Amino acid sequence: MEDAAYGLSIITIWHYTSYKVIKQSFKGSGFDYWLGEKDFSDDPFREKARLEVSGILKGTDAQIKQRLKEKLLQTQKSDNFNLPVIVTIVEFGQPQVKIQQR
Fold first, then answer.
1. Domain tally for the chain?
2. Which domain holds residue 25?
């Protein structure tokens, strides 16, 4: 499920934002991937934002909102980078991807 959540989130980010995944973050950083700009000119691997991903096998709207809140709090440990963060919650019961940027 974890890999599927990552895959769906990466596709969602590519399709609905100006970002693309450029590399995985270090364990314990508070987020999963570094994002760069899709349309780059000078530096294709420059970190422009952070991505945190979570998957729920089957969840209610309330559970999805709670997970989103938890993940947004988790990413605060990397706020010193002063870069936007995007959190995606992938729910597999009635397939959906919830996305929020801060």
1. 1
2. 2-101
